[in-house]
Amino acid sequence: MSKLFSLATRMQGVESSPTLRLNALAQEMIREGKDVINLTAGETDFETPANIRAAAVKAMEAGKTRYTAPHGTPELRKAVAAWFERDFGLKYSFQQVTTTCGVKQGIFHLMLAIVGAGDEVIIPAPYWVSYPEMVRLAGGTPIILPSQSGFGLQREALKKAITKRTRLLLLNFPNNPSGASYSKDDLEFVAELLKGTDILVASDEIYSSLCYDGTAFHSFASLSEDAYQRTITFNGLSKSHAMTGWRVGFAAGEIKIIEAMGILQAQSATNITSFVQDAAIEALKQTKAEFEPRRLDMQSRRDLAVSILRGAEKLKLDTPTGAFYCFPDVSAYFNQRLPGSEAMSEYLLLEAGVATVPGKPFGDDRCIRISFAKDKQSLEKGLGRFVAALQKL
Length: 393
Ligand SMILES: Cc1ncc(COP(=O)(O)O)c(C=O)c1O
Description:
Elements: H1 18-31, E1 37-38, H2 50-61, H3 74-88, E2 97-100, H4 102-114, E3 120-124, H5 130-137, E4 141-145, H6 155-161, E5 166-172, H7 184-194, E6 200-204, H8 225-230, E7 231-236, E8 249-252, H9 255-266, H10 274-283, H11 288-309, E9 325-326, H12 341-352, E10 354-355, E11 357-358, E12 368-371, H13 376-391
Parallel strand pairs: 1-10, 3-4, 3-5, 5-6, 6-7
Antiparallel strand pairs: 2-8, 7-8, 9-12, 11-12
Bound molecules: pyridoxal-5'-phosphate (PLP).
């Protein structure tokens, strides 16, 4: 066989994002005129605020259309450092901050910077689909902590998973796909457990602005001096500012690691889009009070989604306390024809016209991910169909 189109071994077993694939399939059905309610989206339906859009236009008109420093402009890095302090109580110098094309690129760069062959990265399930693939692309080995009921931290499994080869622990809360958050007690347990080890923590806090029912958000690095030292904190504008397409992510932590991530940025994308950097500075002026109506709106959509889903008698659902996903366990409805989440998601799309994402690529095949970042009418219609389709089984 010709080697003309053969791929590098690092591509073996690495998959394209299944959340994007399902979304694309649903879009195709919609284009064909089929009646599909799409509950797969990983983004809100809000507009990017007008002042942020205006800041980008102004920057463009002012000629800010050229390369910038790989980490981003000093003005942006300073604004990010000030924001980490204002909203999270985290003190970073601007040299400890870098900007990336979304948190996705930031985490990928961290993997390339610190993970190599033989290194293990601990990932509690359910996890964001990209984490294991990024670890593999970097040449490391993902060590998955199996999902447990309530989606709390798997304390015993975590203790057992730590070996001499453990390089990194990946935390994500509020969590995609479960919408669960770790308690402060869980986070303190982790901080205590890692003391005296050489294990770094990547804390993906992209959903920090979307916490419900009065649950407070505690940034992992804010827990103790030791936690601060070993953590690279990730956050960005995608979810909190409705800016998914703008591609703005932030990473902050130990300068040596941030510098390495800057080298990777310099050798790949060069920098995040120049005029977007001014818009990001404008975005960071948004206060929690200004975001509050959007948070409350999402919380009421969460309430609606949960109340409809509870109509399916055999479905198990922990009420999400953050992000914009429900992750119900539908395994009681599995049968020979529908033995797992992928077949179930496909059934729901083709038979009931409701697009969801199977739990399998998130590390929990019992569950289906439903995004409630959708208008209430669509939620009522889509989740009504979802429940009816399950009850038919
Ligand atoms: C847990 C998690 N981390 C990171 C990201 C990526 O965010 P960004 O748009 O900043 O790359 C997502 C997006 O869905 C996510 O769910």
